[in-house]
Write a structure and sequence with these properties.
The chain has 14 helices and 21 strands. With about 525 residues, it is of the alpha+beta class. The strands form 7 sheets. A 5-stranded antiparallel beta sheet has the order 1-2-3-4-5, with no helix packed on it. A 5-stranded antiparallel beta sheet has the order 11-12-13-14-15, with helices on one face. Strands 10-9-16 form a 3-stranded antiparallel beta sheet, covered by helices on one side.
Length: about 525
């Protein structure tokens, strides 16, 4: 044993363990071509933890924050425009009191660029529904039935709307999770007689939920806890729930009786042997580093608003002496001045171009650094009717940004598919042994305006300019006919009748004279 920089070193290849104290372990694994150093905390023994009589200490352990994620209370002041600093700034934006005591309030104009950016990046990520590609033996009817059941679960859970909500929570609050659970309700939605429906619900700090994940040193999720408040009758309760791979615990704390402490209100086993939730997190919001630009825009247009308001009242210029005034229905409407005198209004000339250039430059910098396009109406109307390839080129930066974000999303979607398959194995036990024969790949397509003509031309070029859909299918896809099959049959009959008429009018070239 050797001492090195206040650490105790235990040499036992291929691992060297550096022990500094009882709480922190640093270890280095030696590999043939590289080494990796990682720091972790001693893992909680959940079997021992939940045996404690002191619920407060249990929850205290589970609340240990191990992720470097900003608090929603901090992010909210940037996300919500009415919580921006300028709204309550009475130092940089001072009100003015007139001689008659009237207070002229300074302009304080918040600009919700962070909220706009959150919506925009969410829409670019999820506006085109996530596509699921299944790999399995397509000649096996039972596997086909399983795939149809999985797709039906996604459909009944309204997964496309869920994904859009999850994207906003993820990009703004930096963390969220989706909990999957069963509800006892006999049905045949999934292609078999089931006693349960599989549903999901998303929780995030944006909904008033505090999330406390617990990871091991390999970033595997060992426990997922969350705390929220809910009013029952006239009493507000604080609930704390924890999910592990094999148990679910739920405690409550009454605001009217906080001295009694936490009470265990629910405890049950998890039958699928895994946490029935999918957790996403990021270390920074999507508007990271863009707050100074937004603040500069707010203060610039607010100061200019005061200038415009101050100079909007007309200023009367009188040259020479005033000889007298005449009353014409209203007092002092006509001025009489001396010779060479003049009465006129002074027009205010503002250097608007410099201000417009400054604000436009800041807005461009905001969207350029966020890698999101400014697709406002004013910008889009100037593009005209550009082609599909041109639109793809214009949105290249946004697509690269979404491509950078897809890794975390797909990882979560794959875990979610495994959770669904685990639930389905319990809902229909005869399928349990075959779930591993199906793999699900998720494809995220960044948003772009559809151009069906361009897509059709691409596919037709690939197959030698041959049709890619049948006439009957095109009738169905058009959606004009109430009965596509009957319409197709009528078209065939009309074509046959037209062929007979054409044949009747043509001379018989092979007749004998």
């Amino acid at each position: 044993m050797q001492r090195y920089e206040n650490f105790l070193i235990y040499a036992n290849l291929p691992t060297i363990i550096l022990v500094k104290n009882t709480k922190t372990v640093k270890y280095m694994r030696i590999y043939p071509y590289f080494c990796q150093i990682k720091t972790s905390k001693i893992m909680i023994d959940f079997n021992e933890l939940f045996k404690r009589n002191d619920v407060g200490s249990i929850i205290g352990e589970l609340k240990q924050r191990v992720l470097d994620i900003p608090l929603w209370s901090t992010l909210l002041s940037e996300y919500e425009p009415m919580l921006h600093e300028i709204v309550e700034d009475h130092v940089g934006r001072q009100d003015r009191t007139l001689d008659d005591g009237i207070v002229e309030k300074a302009a304080r104009l918040p600009v919700g660029l962070e909220k706009l950016l959150t919506r925009r990046i969410s829409e670019f990520t999820m506006a085109i529904p996530v596509k699921r590609v299944y790999t399995y033996d397509q000649t096996d009817e039972e596997l086909k039935a399983i795939v149809r059941a999985i797709e039906k679960i996604y459909t009944c859970a309204h997964i496309d709307a869920v994904n859009m909500h999850r994207a906003k929570c993820y990009y703004a609050s930096c963390q969220m999770f989706t909990l999957w659970y069963t509800q006892k309700k006999p049905n045949k939605l999934y292609g078999f007689d089931s006693q349960y429906k599989l549903k999901c619900k998303t929780f995030s700090p944006m909904d008033g939920v505090d999330i406390y994940p617990y990871f091991d040193e390999y970033d595997d999720l060992l426990a997922l806890s969350f705390e929220y408040k809910r009013k029952v009758t006239d009493t507000e309760y604080t609930f704390f729930e924890t999910y592990t791979a094999d148990h679910h615990y739920k405690w409550d704390l009454s605001s009217d009786d906080e001295e009694s402490g936490w009470n265990l209100v629910d405890e049950n086993e998890i039958s699928i042997d895994k946490i029935p939730a999918v957790f996403w997190y990021r270390h920074k919001p999507c508007w990271e580093g863009l707050k100074p630009i937004r603040e500069n825009i707010e203060y610039t247009i607010s100061r200019n608003s005061d200038v415009v308001a101050y100079n909007s009242a007309p200023v009367l210029k009188i040259a020479g002496a005033i000889v007298g005034m005449e009353r014409k229905g209203e007092s002092k409407r006509v001025y009489r001045v001396s010779e060479d005198g003049d009465v006129s209004y002074v027009s205010w000339q503002q250097a608007i171009e410099a201000l417009k250039y400054h604000v436009d430059t800041l807005v461009k910098l905001f969207f350029m650094q966020s890698q999101m396009p400014d697709i406002s109406f004013e910008n889009m109307k100037s593009l005209g009717n550009i082609g599909y390839d041109s639109r793809k080129t214009l949105l290249m930066d946004a697509h690269l940004k979404i491509g950078e974000e897809t890794g975390a999303w797909i990882e979560g979607f794959e875990r979610e598919a495994n959770v669904i398959k685990a639930f389905l194995s319990k809902m229909n036990t005869k399928w349990a042994a075959r779930m591993d024969e199906i793999t699900v790949e998720h494809v995220i397509t960044p948003f772009i305006q559809e151009d069906k003509m361009a897509q059709i031309e691409t596919w037709m070029k690939g197959n030698g300019n041959k049709p890619i859909v049948s006439q009957k299918e095109s009738i169905k896809r058009a959606g004009i006919s109430d009965d596509p099959d009957a319409t197709y049959q009528e078209i065939l009959e009309e074509d046959e009748a037209e062929s007979k008429r054409t044949a009747a009018t043509m001379p018989n070239l092979f007749s004998e004279e």
